[in-house]
Amino acid sequence: MTTNRKIKVCHIISFISYSLFIEAIGQFLDKEEYEISFIFLNPDVSPIERALVEGGYRVEHIDYRGRKQFLSTVYRLRKLLKNIGPDIVHTHLVDASMAGLVAARTLGIKRRLHTRHHGAECHIYYPHGVYYDKLINRLSSRIIATTGIVRDILVDREGANEKKVRVIPYGYDLSRFDGNEQVTNELADKYGLRGHYPVIGMISRFVELKGIQYVIPAFARISKEYPDAKLVLANASGDYAKVVNSLLERELSANQYVKIVFETKIFDLYSNFDIFLHVPVTRDAEAFGQTYIEALYAEIPSVLTIAGIAPDFIRDGENAVVVPYCDSDAIYAAMQSLLKDEELRKRITKDSKNAVCKLFGGESLAIELDNVYVDLMSSYSK
Fold first, then answer.
1. Could you read off the pLDDT of 302-355 as tens digits, one per residue?
2. Tell me, what's the pLDDT at 354?
């Protein structure tokens, strides 16, 4: 697009430490066309804020610790937005969207949009949260859904105007996903993975919707055929931990698995896996599922259920082995097939990295965001 001046877009984000997606917004949008600023609602200055400052962006911080500060935060946002003078306000996550969209609307800013980063969690676990989601939808001139599944939740469950909703997947600087062989080897030593085959990896929080309870019995069967097999459970914390830990103690010996609560070099961990598993229990258990992208980019043979972004690019037998939901027998059979069928492993990993690069690069994200911003600029006078 060509205008007489740069389009000012202000992103408002809450409760986030780091995000490759947010970083990519600043990195890939055309700096000749856009002037991008960021306002973070965080209790402390986060690493992503520091990174964006180093990148030369205007970054404002509001000390925000919860909704008791809602009114004062709206007031502070109004002052900042008056000073910034954005053409478009783009919000992310619930608290930032509530406060940011209210502030923008009361200032008469008509070009308001939010990216919906969560899925059906409120419908399942927090029904009162659906009220906030619906209010955010009404306050937005446009809504970005990260997947087709999120679009369906917005339109079918929450009554959002489908004409306002646009599906734009996350985009990244995918070079940030590249592993380092030396670091991969260091992690193998750190977590006792050397000498084990197969190493089966999961990177999922310990929550019921992730399906870990179906993986553990399947792995127990694999370990009877492969005594040196090892199960790696990364991001090993969450409200389902008691059930997961009980299953681990009952089904496996202590040397057959490792739990990793937090690992900063997570991209380097993937290359230690012979098979990767991600098996959410329902189609809408994920809003996106970045781990699908990470695993295929790392070219790790993967056993997956279809959730989040998966319906948009995962194909059974082409780039992964797809299994039914909540099915330990199917997970076991899929792992067994991958371990015994070298041709299958080669086939599903051959073009997986290229497919990810085509769909989820930062360049694609920038093009899609530009289209939405152009639409907003032409649809609403300031």
1. 999 999 999 999 999 999 999 999 999 999 999 999 999 999 999 999 989 988
2. 87
Report CA 47 to chain centroid distance, whole Å.
18
CB 213 within 8 A of CB 244: yes
Q: Using CA atoms, how far apart are residues 128 and 120, in angstroms rounded to an integer?
A: 12
pLDDT band at 1 (very low <50, low <70, confident <90, very high): very low
Share the mean pLDDT of the chain: 95
Q: How far is CA 334 from the centre of its chain?
A: 25
| Token pair belonging to 269 | 């961990």
Give the dihedral sign, CA 369/374/377/378. Answer: negative
Task: Report residue 69: phi and psi, to 5°.
Answer: -95, 15
Provide the strand spans (E) within 27-163: 34-42, 58-63, 88-92, 112-116, 142-145
The helix or strand, by DSSP H or E, that contains position 82, with its residue range, turns out to be helix 70-84
Q: Which of the four pLDDT bands, split at 50, 70 and 90, describes residue 124?
A: confident
Helices (H), 226-297: 241-251, 266-269, 290-297
Cα torsion 230, 231, 235, 237: sign:
negative
Task: Please name each of the domains of the chain with its CATH number.
Answer: 7-173+361-379 (3.40.50.2000), 179-357 (3.40.50.2000)
Q: Establish how many alpha carbons lie within 13 A of residue 129's alpha carbon, considering only the half-sphere containing its beta carbon.
A: 12
**What letter would DSSP give residue 6?**
P
- pLDDT greater than 90 at residue 166: yes
Backbone angles phi, psi at 234, to 5 degrees: -100, 155
Average pLDDT (107-118) is: 97
The pLDDT tens digits of the residues spanning 127-143 come to: 999 999 999 999 999 99
Question: pTM for the whole thing?
Answer: 0.91
Long-range pairs, 320-327, Cβ under 8 A, ≥24:
320/296, 320/348, 320/352, 321/348, 323/279, 325/211, 325/279, 325/280, 325/281, 325/282, 326/211, 326/214, 326/281, 327/214
CA dist 80 and 174 (Å) reads 33
